[in-house]
Specification:
The protein is α/β, with parallel strands linked by helices and about 350 residues long. It contains eleven helices and 13 strands. It binds NADPH dihydro-nicotinamide-adenine-dinucleotide phosphate and N-acetyl-L-glutamyl 5-phosphate (X2W). InterPro entries: AGPR, AGPR_AS, AGPR_dimerisation_dom, AGPR_type-1, NAD(P)-bd_dom_sf, Semialdehyde_DH_NAD-bd.
Length: about 350
C-alpha cells in the first residue's frame, strides 16, 4: 500500500486523479493540499466525490506531508511545482510532477520558453519522461517522474513509430492540435471565460507555445536511438481551443520517406502498439469521444497527396495528465501498470 498526497487537489487534474485513486487497491490518499487555510471538506470542492473520501483539503508543511505520504502528485502550475518537488524529494517522498517543470533537458531552454529561472535546474535532463510506451524502463522504480504535457502525448505517440521505422523525414513535421477547455485548468482565465470561448474556435500560442520544445526534445530522444549524429527534430506546433469540455485531437503532417504507403504507415503504428494496454492503431480517423474519460490514445495514419497524415486522440485530463500519472505511479511503486486504469 502506498500513502498518497495530492498538491493542487482542488483543480481539474486533482479531481481526475482522485476519481482514479478511489478505485486503486494499493493507494491510500492521506493528504490533500491547498494554499487556503479554511480546510474545506473535499465534497465542498468537488461535489462529484461526495461519499468517496472523508478528507479535508489542508495547508500543510512539507514536513507534515512527508510524515503522512510515500508518494506525492503535484498538480500545480509550473515553477510552484518544482519548488515543492525539490522539498519532497529531499525528505524521501517520491513525486509524479504533473506540471511541465522537469520535461525539458536544460535550464537555458526552460528559461527561454517559460520566461523565468528554473527553481530546481540540477534535475533537468535527468528526470524520466513519463510516457511508459516509450520510456518504461526508466520509469520503473524512479523517485521523480516528469508527467508529459497533454498535447505532446498526442503528438509523440503518433509520430515516434514512424520516425523509428524510417517512414517519415525528421524535417518539416507539422502538428496541428485542438483541445477542449479543461486543458486550461479550473483556475479562471480570460481565454476560457464562457462568452470568450463558447461557439468560437481559435488558435493560440502561435509560434510560442511551450509544448513545441517539449515535443522536439522527446521526439529527438525517442527516435535517435542508433544515430547520435542526427540533428535535433524541430516541429511546427499550433494549439487550438475548441468549445468542448475535454479531449485533444492532433492532425499531423510529415514528409514520407522510404517505403511509406497507407499500408506501411498503419503497419508501423500497429506493430509499435501491439502489446500496449492503452494505445491502439485504429483503421479510421478517430474522434475525441472514442477515448473520453479513458487512459487510451487512438492513432490513425495514411498517405495523402505526398504527405503522411496522422490523427491522434486522447482525453487531456486522463491519458494527457492524471491517467498517465497513475500509470507512472504504478510503475514507480511496482504495481501492475494498468491498476485502476482499465
Ligand atoms: N488541465 C489539463 O488538461 C492538464 C494540465 N496539466 C498540468 O497539470 C498542472 C495542474 O493543472 P490543472 O489541474 O488543470 O490546474 P487547475 O488550475 O485546475 O488547478 C491547479 C491548482 O493548483 C493550486 N495553485 C494554483 N496556483 C498556485 C500557485 N501559484 N502555487 C501553489 N498552488 C497553486 C490551486 O489550488 P488551491 O487554490 O486550492 O491552492 C489550483 O486549484 C498544471 O501544471 C497543468 O499545466 C498537464 C496536462 C494536462
Ligand atoms: C487548452 C489549454 O489551455 N491547454 C493548456 C495545456 C495544458 C498542459 O498540458 O499544460 P502543461 O504543459 O503546463 O502541463 C495550455 O495550452 O497551456
Amino acid at each position: 500500500m502506498a500513502r498518497v498526497a495530492i498538491y493542487g487537489a482542488s483543480g481539474y487534474t486533482g479531481l481526475e486523479l482522485l476519481k482514479l485513486l478511489a478505485r486503486h487497491p494499493h493507494a491510500q490518499v492521506t493528504a490533500l493540499l491547498t494554499r487556503q487555510d479554511e480546510a474545506p471538506h473535499l465534497s465542498e470542492i468537488h461535489p462529484q466525490l461526495t461519499g468517496s473520501f472523508d478528507l479535508r483539503l489542508e495547508n500543510l508543511s512539507v514536513d507534515q506531508v512527508a510524515e503522512r505520504a510515500d508518494v506525492a502528485f503535484t498538480c500545480l502550475p509550473h515553477a510552484a511545482s518544482a519548488e515543492v518537488c525539490a522539498d519532497l524529494l529531499s525528505r524521501g517522498v517520491k513525486v509524479v510532477d504533473l506540471s511541465a517543470d522537469y520535461r525539458l533537458g536544460d535550464a537555458g531552454t526552460y528559461q527561454q520558453w517559460y520566461g523565468h529561472e528554473h527553481p530546481d535546474a540540477a534535475r533537468l535532463g535527468k528526470t524520466p519522461y513519463g510516457l511508459p510506451e516509450l520510456f518504461r524502463e526508466q520509469i520503473i522504480g524512479a523517485d521523480l517522474i516528469a508527467n508529459p504535457g497533454c498535447y505532446p502525448t498526442s503528438a509523440i505517440l503518433a509520430l515516434t513509430p514512424l520516425l523509428r521505422a524510417g517512414l517519415i523525414e525528421r524535417e518539416g513535421i507539422v502538428v496541428d492540435s485542438k483541445s477542449g477547455v479543461s486543458g486550461a485548468g479550473r483556475t479562471p482565465k480570460l481565454l476560457t471565460h464562457y462568452p470568450e470561448c463558447n461557439e468560437s474556435f481559435s488558435a493560440y500560442g502561435v509560434g510560442t507555445h511551450r509544448h513545441m520544445p517539449e515535443i522536439d526534445r522527446v521526439l529527438s530522444m525517442a527516435s535517435d536511438q542508433s544515430k547520435a549524429s542526427h540533428k535535433a527534430i524541430e516541429v511546427l506546433f499550433t494549439p487550438h481551443l475548441v468549445p468542448m469540455d475535454r479531449g485533444i485531437l492532433s492532425t499531423i503532417y510529415a514528409t514520407p520517406k522510404g517505403d511509406a504507403t497507407p499500408a506501411s504507415v498503419m503497419a508501423a503504428l500497429k506493430e509499435a502498439y501491439a502489446n500496449e494496454p492503452f494505445v491502439s492503431a485504429v483503421e479510421a480517423p478517430p474522434a475525441t469521444k472514442h477515448v473520453a474519460h479513458t487512459n487510451r490514445c487512438h492513432v490513425y495514419g495514411t498517405v495523402v497527396r505526398g504527405k503522411v497524415l496522422l490523427v491522434s486522440v486522447i482525453d487531456n485530463l486522463i491519458k494527457g495528465a492524471s491517467g498517465a500519472a497513475v500509470q507512472n505511479f504504478n510503475l514507480m511503486c511496482g504495481f501492475d501498470e494498468t491498476t485502476a486504469l482499465r
